[in-house]
Amino acid sequence: MDLEKEVRALYLNNRRIKNGYQFTVPSPGTYPYQWMWDSCFHAIVLSHFDPESAKKELFSLLSRQLPDGMVPHVIFWKQGLIRPYEWGWGKDDIGSITQPPMLAYAAWEIHRRAPDGAFLEKIYPQLLAFYKFLIEKRDPRDHHLIGIVNPDESGEDNSPRFDAPLNLKPDVSFVHHYLRRHKLVDQNRKCNFDAELCMSQTFWVKDVPFNAILIHNLQVLSHIASFLGHKAGEHFAEQNHQLIKTAMREYLFKDGVYWSSYDYDYKPLQVATWAHFAPLFAGLYTQEEAQKLVDTHFKNEETFHASYGIRTVSKQEPSYRSTEFWRGPIWFAPHWFMYKGLRAYGFKEEARFLRNANLTLLKQNGFREYFNPETGKGLGAKDFTWGTLTLDMLDDDI
Ligand code: GLC
Question: Residue of the nearest CA to atom 9 in ligand 1?
Fold first, then answer.
């Protein structure tokens, strides 16, 4: 398989231009709109062969940034299609929630591969506004942990990590879960999307992957600010990067791994998911802890390690389902985050396992959305872009 050729073809197939903005839809059949973290992934991949389109993708996403800095998780671009749900502000064609904060990383990758200081200077104020929004609006007690107001903000919509705060059982159906999350949006509409108020009344999760992704991105933001000579921004990013790192250790670390938690009193969400591995991406484990994590969890066939990759939920969990969306299957984005983390720690063999797993899954199924870890069968959307992240996993030293 000529991966780059297939990736280029998929991006052309999924490219859309609306109101003068160019972006990529994750899957023409299933996800015909623009999604936030997907667009960051697209920009990272496009930076390998088409940096100008990568820049357009981010500016298209940021064109709908709100005055308070929030970047919506979805932009419908008024495509005239029947939308399954408005996700909040019925008056507009954007979602009321956000998604994992990969923007700074994506912007820096574009500049790293095709240096363009003017591009960074142009995008920087919007990046800063977004990270300030998260820190100012989603951490009402100044504990330095960012809260998400809906499971969909994690990008792992029906992950069993979020069952407890939603009062759902491990065997909840996909549809029931979906309706429950939309009820949450209705509740948030009642509290006028005021995150502090809504979180205290409904759903307030300090999620591990979201905060780990934020920590890494704040570090990147501080590089960008330093490169551009913006001292105040550099200080803001560096300081918050450290504060969130320390807070994650204080509130979310137990028994050698990180667990998400919810509500005022940090009730632990003790469901074993790939979230244990996400902190590798942000360098939150010591080398010794990381080694233990790899030996005890990453390589453990009874829990996470399957022949086709890493399960998103441990096989031991009562909620584990090999074919059900975020309740067990393999997904390419978690593979990418784990790959980056493992590589940074020097776990080459494990990083290579993920890369080879991706190549096998792509070869057998094409660009599908998620995969049965036990059989390798492709499931969900077709012509789905996340498999293209594999192009960003071909480092020579792995
Ligand atoms: C699904 C995924 C979410 C993604 C969206 C578009 O809802 O769970 O993470 O952003 O599809 O691909």
Answer: 155
